[in-house]
Design brief:
40% helix, 2 domains, Rossmann fold, alpha/beta, 11 strands, 288 residues, six-stranded parallel sheet
C-alpha cells in the first residue's frame, strides 16, 4: 500500500480562489483589506516567512504594510507600534511574527493587540472564544490542518488522534478544533513517556516538532492505514524536511502530507482568510 497525498497546494489554491472572490466582494463595500506585519530582529527564516505571507496576500488583492524593528527594541516600542496599528482604520489584520526576542514578553503584546485584528488568534480574548466554540478568527495552522483534511473528505469523528506539540500556535488550539469534530485527542511533548506507543495506536498523527536531528516519525512507529499530518519543517542535510520519514511512512500510512507542499500553504491561506474576515468586522460583515 502506498499512501495518498494530502495535497496542500491544491487545497490552498482552492481556498485562495475563494479569498480572492471575497476581497472583490468586500471592496464593493468600500473596504480594501490590509495586513500589517511586524518583524522584530533579523532572523533569516522569520524574514522569509513574513515575505512569503506578504506575497501571498498581494496575489489575492490584500494590501500589506511591512514593519521591521531592531532585535534590541524595547517592550514599550513594540507595544506602541501595536497600539498605533490598532487605531489605524486602514489596517485590518496585524501579524506579529514569532518567536520574539527573549527579552520581550509575548503575552503582554498579545494582551494589547485588538482582538478584531488578531489574525493569528493569539489574544487571550480570541483564545477564550475558541475554547467556547465562538471564535470568528481562528489560529492559522490548526485551521489549515482542519481545512486540508476536510478538502480530502476525511471524517475525524471517533478517531484517535495524537498531536506531538503543545504550543499555543499549534497543539493547544488544535485540541479544541478536533474535539469539535468528536475526535479523541492525546497531546504529547518532550516529556511524554512511551511516545512511540502513543503514535503507533493513533488513527491520526499530527507532528509539529521541527527538529529532524533529534526527532523523526519512522515507518515502524505508524499504524498501518493511519493518517499522518506533518507540520514540522526544518533544514536537514541540505534539504527542507518535516518530522516524518516520508518515503518509508508512505508505504504504511493511508494518507500523508508532503513537506514542503502540505500544511505550510494551508497556514498561509488561512492567514489570508482571517485578514479578509477581520476587514469585514469593521462593518459588521463576515467574509468569506
Amino acid at each position: 500500500m502506498t499512501a495518498k497525498i494530502l495535497d496542500g497546494l491544491s487545497a490552498a489554491a482552492f481556498l485562495q480562489s475563494d479569498v480572492k472572490r471575497a476581497v472583490s466582494q468586500i471592496q464593493t463595500e468600500g473596504i480594501r483589506p490590509c495586513l500589517a506585519t511586524i518583524l522584530v530582529g533579523d532572523d533569516p527564516s522569520s524574514a522569509i516567512y513574513v515575505g512569503n505571507k506578504q506575497k501571498a496576500a498581494e496575489t489575492v488583492g490584500i494590501l500589506t504594510r511591512d514593519h521591521k524593528l531592531s532585535s534590541k527594541c524595547t517592550q514599550n516600542e513594540l507595544l506602541e507600534l501595536v497600539k498605533a496599528l490598532n487605531q489605524d482604520t486602514e489596517v485590518h489584520g496585524i501579524l506579529i511574527q514569532l518567536p520574539l526576542p527573549s527579552h520581550l514578553d509575548e503575552f503582554s503584546v498579545f494582551t494589547v493587540l485588538d482582538p478584531r485584528k488578531d489574525v493569528d488568534c493569539l489574544t487571550p480574548y480570541n483564545s477564550g472564544l475558541l475554547i467556547n466554540q465562538k471564535a470568528t478568527l481562528k489560529p492559522c495552522t490548526p485551521t489549515g490542518i482542519m481545512a486540508l483534511l476536510n478538502f480530502h473528505e476525511i471524517d475525524l469523528e471517533s478517531l484517535d488522534i495524537t498531536i506531538i506539540n503543545r504550543s499555543k500556535l499549534v497543539g493547544k488550539p488544535l485540541v479544541f478544533l478536533l474535539l469539535e469534530k468528536n475526535a479523541t485527542v492525546t497531546i504529547c511533548h518532550s516529556k511524554t513517556k512511551l511516545l512511540s506507543e502513543k503514535i503507533k495506536n493513533a488513527d491520526v498523527v499530527i507532528s509539529a516538532v521541527g527538529n529532524r536531528k533529534d526527532f523523526v516519525v519512522r515507518a515502524d512507529m505508524v499504524k498501518p492505514g493511519s493518517i499522518i499530518v506533518d507540520v514540522g519543517i526544518t533544514r536537514f542535510e541540505g534539504k527542507l524536511v518535516g518530522d516524518v520519514d516520508f518515503e518509508n511512512v508512505k508505504e504504511v500510512a493511508a494518507w500523508v502530507t508532503p513537506v514542503p507542499g502540505g500544511v505550510g500553504p494551508m497556514t498561509v491561506s488561512m492567514l489570508l482568510k482571517n485578514t479578509v474576515t477581520a476587514s469585514s468586522l469593521c462593518k459588521d460583515l463576515i467574509y468569506p
